[in-house]
Write a structure and sequence with these properties.
259 residues, alpha/beta, five-stranded mixed β-sheet, 6 helices, disordered N terminus
Protein backbone atom coordinates (compact mmCIF):
# COMPACT_ATOMS: atom_id res chain seq x y z
CA UNK A 1 0.00 0.00 0.00
CA UNK A 2 1.37 3.40 -1.00
CA UNK A 3 1.50 6.05 1.71
CA UNK A 4 1.81 8.85 -0.83
CA UNK A 5 -1.04 11.33 -1.02
CA UNK A 6 -2.59 11.55 -4.49
CA UNK A 7 -3.95 14.89 -5.59
CA UNK A 8 -7.69 14.78 -6.27
CA UNK A 9 -8.64 14.62 -9.95
CA UNK A 10 -9.87 17.95 -11.30
CA UNK A 11 -13.38 17.76 -12.77
CA UNK A 12 -14.33 20.01 -15.70
CA UNK A 13 -17.75 20.35 -17.30
CA UNK A 14 -17.49 21.55 -20.91
CA UNK A 15 -20.73 23.10 -22.14
CA UNK A 16 -21.96 25.13 -25.10
CA UNK A 17 -22.11 28.39 -23.15
CA UNK A 18 -20.00 27.82 -20.04
CA UNK A 19 -17.17 25.80 -18.50
CA UNK A 20 -17.46 24.67 -14.88
CA UNK A 21 -14.58 23.45 -12.70
CA UNK A 22 -14.61 21.55 -9.42
CA UNK A 23 -13.48 23.62 -6.44
CA UNK A 24 -14.74 26.88 -7.96
CA UNK A 25 -18.04 28.68 -7.62
CA UNK A 26 -18.34 30.64 -10.85
CA UNK A 27 -18.61 29.26 -14.36
CA UNK A 28 -16.43 30.60 -17.17
CA UNK A 29 -18.72 31.96 -19.86
CA UNK A 30 -18.07 30.97 -23.47
CA UNK A 31 -17.94 34.18 -25.47
CA UNK A 32 -17.97 35.12 -29.14
CA UNK A 33 -20.27 34.81 -32.13
CA UNK A 34 -19.95 31.03 -32.11
CA UNK A 35 -20.99 30.61 -28.47
CA UNK A 36 -22.98 27.40 -28.27
CA UNK A 37 -20.66 25.45 -30.57
CA UNK A 38 -18.04 23.08 -29.16
CA UNK A 39 -15.33 24.96 -31.07
CA UNK A 40 -16.04 28.08 -29.02
CA UNK A 41 -15.95 26.02 -25.83
CA UNK A 42 -12.53 24.63 -26.80
CA UNK A 43 -11.28 28.13 -27.59
CA UNK A 44 -12.17 29.21 -24.04
CA UNK A 45 -10.50 26.19 -22.43
CA UNK A 46 -6.83 27.38 -22.33
CA UNK A 47 -7.76 30.31 -20.09
CA UNK A 48 -9.33 27.83 -17.66
CA UNK A 49 -6.47 25.32 -17.74
CA UNK A 50 -3.63 27.78 -17.17
CA UNK A 51 -4.09 27.56 -13.39
CA UNK A 52 -3.91 23.76 -13.21
CA UNK A 53 -0.57 22.79 -14.73
CA UNK A 54 0.68 19.29 -13.78
CA UNK A 55 -2.73 18.25 -12.46
CA UNK A 56 -4.89 15.37 -13.68
CA UNK A 57 -8.35 16.20 -15.01
CA UNK A 58 -11.52 14.44 -16.13
CA UNK A 59 -13.91 16.19 -18.54
CA UNK A 60 -17.67 15.81 -18.78
CA UNK A 61 -19.06 16.82 -22.17
CA UNK A 62 -22.46 18.47 -22.48
CA UNK A 63 -25.03 16.20 -24.13
CA UNK A 64 -25.32 18.86 -26.82
CA UNK A 65 -21.92 17.67 -28.08
CA UNK A 66 -22.90 13.98 -28.03
CA UNK A 67 -25.18 11.71 -30.06
CA UNK A 68 -26.76 8.70 -28.39
CA UNK A 69 -28.35 5.49 -29.57
CA UNK A 70 -29.61 2.39 -27.79
CA UNK A 71 -28.64 -0.94 -29.29
CA UNK A 72 -30.92 -3.88 -28.38
CA UNK A 73 -29.16 -6.86 -26.83
CA UNK A 74 -27.86 -9.27 -29.47
CA UNK A 75 -26.35 -12.56 -28.31
CA UNK A 76 -24.67 -12.98 -31.72
CA UNK A 77 -22.32 -10.06 -31.03
CA UNK A 78 -19.32 -11.44 -29.13
CA UNK A 79 -16.80 -8.57 -29.04
CA UNK A 80 -16.63 -4.84 -28.37
CA UNK A 81 -15.55 -4.32 -31.98
CA UNK A 82 -18.74 -5.96 -33.25
CA UNK A 83 -20.89 -3.74 -31.03
CA UNK A 84 -19.03 -0.63 -32.24
CA UNK A 85 -19.53 -1.73 -35.86
CA UNK A 86 -23.27 -2.06 -35.19
CA UNK A 87 -23.29 1.39 -33.59
CA UNK A 88 -21.45 2.88 -36.57
CA UNK A 89 -24.06 1.41 -38.88
CA UNK A 90 -26.89 2.75 -36.72
CA UNK A 91 -25.46 6.28 -36.52
CA UNK A 92 -24.81 6.24 -40.26
CA UNK A 93 -28.42 5.28 -40.94
CA UNK A 94 -29.70 8.02 -38.61
CA UNK A 95 -27.33 10.87 -39.44
CA UNK A 96 -25.78 10.07 -42.81
CA UNK A 97 -22.21 10.76 -43.98
CA UNK A 98 -21.13 12.98 -41.02
CA UNK A 99 -21.30 9.94 -38.72
CA UNK A 100 -18.17 8.57 -40.40
CA UNK A 101 -16.20 11.29 -38.58
CA UNK A 102 -17.48 10.40 -35.12
CA UNK A 103 -15.70 8.52 -32.38
CA UNK A 104 -17.98 5.89 -30.90
CA UNK A 105 -18.05 4.17 -27.52
CA UNK A 106 -20.50 1.41 -26.61
CA UNK A 107 -21.15 0.52 -22.98
CA UNK A 108 -23.25 -2.09 -21.22
CA UNK A 109 -26.24 -0.82 -19.25
CA UNK A 110 -27.41 -4.14 -17.75
CA UNK A 111 -26.61 -7.84 -18.25
CA UNK A 112 -28.32 -8.86 -21.49
CA UNK A 113 -29.84 -5.39 -21.68
CA UNK A 114 -29.56 -2.70 -24.35
CA UNK A 115 -26.15 -1.13 -24.88
CA UNK A 116 -25.69 2.62 -24.92
CA UNK A 117 -23.75 3.98 -27.90
CA UNK A 118 -22.21 7.45 -27.55
CA UNK A 119 -20.74 9.33 -30.52
CA UNK A 120 -18.62 12.49 -30.49
CA UNK A 121 -16.87 14.23 -33.36
CA UNK A 122 -13.25 13.09 -33.54
CA UNK A 123 -12.22 16.70 -34.12
CA UNK A 124 -13.65 17.62 -30.72
CA UNK A 125 -11.77 14.84 -28.91
CA UNK A 126 -8.53 15.67 -30.74
CA UNK A 127 -8.91 19.38 -29.99
CA UNK A 128 -9.59 18.62 -26.35
CA UNK A 129 -6.47 16.49 -26.02
CA UNK A 130 -4.38 19.11 -27.83
CA UNK A 131 -5.35 21.89 -25.45
CA UNK A 132 -4.68 19.79 -22.37
CA UNK A 133 -1.23 18.87 -23.64
CA UNK A 134 -0.45 22.52 -24.37
CA UNK A 135 -1.54 23.51 -20.86
CA UNK A 136 0.49 20.76 -19.18
CA UNK A 137 -2.63 19.15 -17.69
CA UNK A 138 -3.11 15.39 -17.93
CA UNK A 139 -6.48 14.54 -19.48
CA UNK A 140 -7.52 11.28 -17.82
CA UNK A 141 -10.92 10.89 -19.48
CA UNK A 142 -13.77 12.52 -21.38
CA UNK A 143 -17.29 11.37 -20.55
CA UNK A 144 -20.77 12.37 -21.79
CA UNK A 145 -22.96 14.15 -19.23
CA UNK A 146 -25.84 11.67 -19.34
CA UNK A 147 -23.47 8.85 -18.41
CA UNK A 148 -21.90 10.89 -15.61
CA UNK A 149 -25.38 11.70 -14.28
CA UNK A 150 -26.55 8.10 -14.43
CA UNK A 151 -23.44 6.97 -12.56
CA UNK A 152 -24.46 9.26 -9.73
CA UNK A 153 -28.09 8.12 -9.55
CA UNK A 154 -27.88 4.46 -10.64
CA UNK A 155 -28.35 3.14 -7.08
CA UNK A 156 -31.31 5.45 -6.67
CA UNK A 157 -32.87 4.05 -9.86
CA UNK A 158 -32.00 0.43 -9.08
CA UNK A 159 -34.34 -2.01 -10.81
CA UNK A 160 -37.13 0.53 -10.92
CA UNK A 161 -38.49 2.74 -13.69
CA UNK A 162 -37.96 6.46 -14.26
CA UNK A 163 -37.46 9.21 -16.78
CA UNK A 164 -34.15 11.06 -16.70
CA UNK A 165 -34.47 14.61 -18.02
CA UNK A 166 -31.32 16.64 -18.70
CA UNK A 167 -31.61 20.39 -19.26
CA UNK A 168 -29.11 22.23 -21.45
CA UNK A 169 -29.42 25.47 -23.36
CA UNK A 170 -32.28 25.07 -25.84
CA UNK A 171 -32.34 21.31 -25.43
CA UNK A 172 -33.66 18.46 -23.31
CA UNK A 173 -32.25 14.95 -23.32
CA UNK A 174 -34.87 12.38 -22.30
CA UNK A 175 -33.98 8.84 -21.26
CA UNK A 176 -36.43 6.19 -20.07
CA UNK A 177 -35.37 3.35 -17.82
CA UNK A 178 -37.97 0.65 -17.29
CA UNK A 179 -37.52 -2.01 -14.61
CA UNK A 180 -33.81 -1.24 -14.47
CA UNK A 181 -33.22 -1.45 -18.24
CA UNK A 182 -32.74 1.40 -20.70
CA UNK A 183 -35.71 1.55 -23.04
CA UNK A 184 -35.41 4.83 -24.96
CA UNK A 185 -33.30 7.95 -25.36
CA UNK A 186 -33.82 11.04 -27.48
CA UNK A 187 -33.10 14.76 -27.60
CA UNK A 188 -35.55 17.54 -28.33
CA UNK A 189 -35.45 21.31 -28.57
CA UNK A 190 -36.84 23.35 -25.70
CA UNK A 191 -37.23 26.89 -24.44
CA UNK A 192 -37.69 28.56 -21.06
CA UNK A 193 -41.25 27.21 -20.80
CA UNK A 194 -40.19 23.55 -20.56
CA UNK A 195 -40.62 23.31 -16.78
CA UNK A 196 -44.34 23.97 -17.03
CA UNK A 197 -44.69 21.79 -20.12
CA UNK A 198 -42.72 18.79 -18.84
CA UNK A 199 -45.76 16.61 -18.01
CA UNK A 200 -47.12 17.19 -21.50
CA UNK A 201 -43.71 16.45 -23.04
CA UNK A 202 -43.38 13.15 -21.19
CA UNK A 203 -46.98 12.18 -21.96
CA UNK A 204 -46.27 12.64 -25.68
CA UNK A 205 -43.09 10.57 -25.38
CA UNK A 206 -45.06 7.86 -23.57
CA UNK A 207 -47.63 7.78 -26.36
CA UNK A 208 -44.89 7.70 -29.01
CA UNK A 209 -43.28 4.68 -27.33
CA UNK A 210 -46.63 2.93 -27.00
CA UNK A 211 -46.16 2.13 -23.33
CA UNK A 212 -48.92 0.04 -21.81
CA UNK A 213 -48.38 1.75 -18.47
CA UNK A 214 -46.89 5.25 -18.15
CA UNK A 215 -43.84 5.88 -15.98
CA UNK A 216 -44.60 8.70 -13.53
CA UNK A 217 -41.24 8.92 -11.78
CA UNK A 218 -38.90 11.57 -13.18
CA UNK A 219 -35.41 12.70 -12.19
CA UNK A 220 -34.61 16.15 -13.54
CA UNK A 221 -30.99 17.28 -13.98
CA UNK A 222 -31.64 21.00 -14.03
CA UNK A 223 -29.38 23.95 -14.76
CA UNK A 224 -31.31 26.11 -12.32
CA UNK A 225 -34.10 25.64 -9.83
CA UNK A 226 -36.85 23.14 -10.55
CA UNK A 227 -39.97 23.16 -8.37
CA UNK A 228 -41.00 19.51 -7.98
CA UNK A 229 -44.20 20.59 -6.20
CA UNK A 230 -45.55 21.87 -9.52
CA UNK A 231 -45.50 18.34 -10.94
CA UNK A 232 -48.62 17.15 -9.11
CA UNK A 233 -49.13 13.88 -10.96
CA UNK A 234 -45.46 12.93 -11.10
CA UNK A 235 -42.98 11.65 -8.55
CA UNK A 236 -40.41 14.27 -9.43
CA UNK A 237 -36.93 14.72 -8.00
CA UNK A 238 -34.54 17.50 -8.97
CA UNK A 239 -30.74 17.33 -9.03
CA UNK A 240 -28.19 20.01 -9.85
CA UNK A 241 -26.66 19.73 -13.32
CA UNK A 242 -23.45 21.29 -12.00
CA UNK A 243 -23.09 18.85 -9.11
CA UNK A 244 -23.70 15.87 -11.37
CA UNK A 245 -21.18 17.07 -13.95
CA UNK A 246 -18.50 17.50 -11.29
CA UNK A 247 -19.18 14.27 -9.38
CA UNK A 248 -16.78 11.33 -9.40
CA UNK A 249 -16.94 8.58 -12.02
CA UNK A 250 -18.29 5.10 -11.32
CA UNK A 251 -18.64 1.73 -13.11
CA UNK A 252 -20.72 2.67 -16.19
CA UNK A 253 -17.86 4.48 -17.84
CA UNK A 254 -18.52 5.21 -21.54
CA UNK A 255 -15.14 6.94 -21.53
CA UNK A 256 -14.05 8.31 -24.89
CA UNK A 257 -10.46 7.72 -25.96
CA UNK A 258 -8.37 10.89 -25.71
CA UNK A 259 -4.90 9.60 -26.55
Amino acid sequence: MSLLWRRKTLRIGLGPDSIIVSGTKDAVRVQGEGAGDWRSALAALPEVLKNYRNQEAAVVLADQFVRYALLPWNAALKSDAEWVALAQHRFGALHGAPAAEWQIKVTETAPHGARLACAVERELIAGLAERFVAAGVHLASAQPFLVAAFNRIRKQVGNGSCWIVVEERGRLTLALIQRGEWLAIRARRSDERWRGLLPEILERETAFLGLAQPCTRVIVCAQGTFDVELQENWRAHSLSYRELALSAESPMEAILETA
